[in-house]
Specification:
This protein is of the alpha/beta class. 39% of the residues lie in helices and 17% in strands. The chain binds manganese (II) ion.
């Protein structure tokens, strides 16, 4: 598995500036590749991310470290074009990121872009840890059939919640996993743009992350929205543990 730095925060709508600094800190001491960001040009940056991701995913699996969540749109597009069969997208995030749909896509609407472009079928998308949703997003997710496992459900249902994920894994052939660090509780991940209380604790996350990696079906992952400028050190350390955990699976 390749580790790839994507140090762009151009899709953050000025709400999480600083997350471009995260890859250098999270990947420090590790061997990694890098997407060349086109400073001040969001569209060219998206194109560079897409091209580099496609080149890598044609022959390898990869974990992309961002950056803000808008990078995932180009990454999932590259995943779509380099995979076949039944694809699934599993997103760990406090938010559904379906606020609106205009290009270039921001970190608030990239999931909607994935659905509208048909990169992954809506019913094969599962959002985990959601706990802050606009009414329009709720309607959209319902209409499209996107699966949602809210933070409350993860905490209340435990094994049952895990079974829902296992069901999706069983039905899928190739999986993309996107991790927005704000899925975690602010007490363990304070270094990010939008803090939402009642987030997942580390154990709840790994209970769900492990079966994904165990399945051997995960071909690409990303880890986004870590902001060292807002951190007290905890968030970057948590991100490093996630990278190490995934890297040990030798996907
Ligand atoms: Mn989020």
């Amino acid at each position: 598995m390749k580790l790839v730095s994507v140090s762009s925060d151009q899709g953050n709508l000025d709400k999480n500036k600083g997350c471009s600094l995260a890859p250098a800190q999270i990947l420090k001491g590790k061997e990694f590749e890098e997407v060349q960001i086109v400073s001040g040009n969001f569209e060219e940056t998206d194109e560079a991310i897409y091209k580099k991701a496609k080149e890598i995913l044609e022959k390898d699996t990869a974990l992309f470290v961002g950056g803000d969540h808008s990078i995932s749109y180009s990454l999932v597009k590259a995943f779509f074009e380099t995979s076949k069969g039944k694809r699934a997208l599993v997103v760990f995030d406090a938010h559904p990121d379906c606020v609106q749909f205009f290009k270039p896509l921001s970190h608030e609407d990239w999931v909607q872009g994935v659905v509208e472009e048909g990169f992954v079928e809506a019913e094969n998308i599962m959002l985990i840890g959601v706990r802050k949703t606009h009414e329009l997003e709720r309607d959209y997710l319902k209409k499209k059939g996107v699966k949602v496992l809210s933070s409350v459900e993860v905490k209340a249902e435990g094994e049952q919640a895990k079974d829902k994920l296992l069901e999706l894994i069983a039905l899928s052939e190739e999986i993309y996993v996107s991790i927005d660090i704000d899925v975690f509780d602010p007490s363990i991940a304070p270094g990010t743009g939008y803090l939402e209380k009642n987030g997942l604790v580390e154990q709840e996350f790994f209970e769900l992350f492990k079966p994904l990696l165990d399945s051997g079906k995960v071909r690409a992952l990303d880890l986004v929205e870590v902001n060292p400028e807002k951190d007290n050190g905890k968030t970057v350390e948590l991100a490093k543990r996630i990278v190490d955990f995934a890297n040990n699976f030798k996907l």
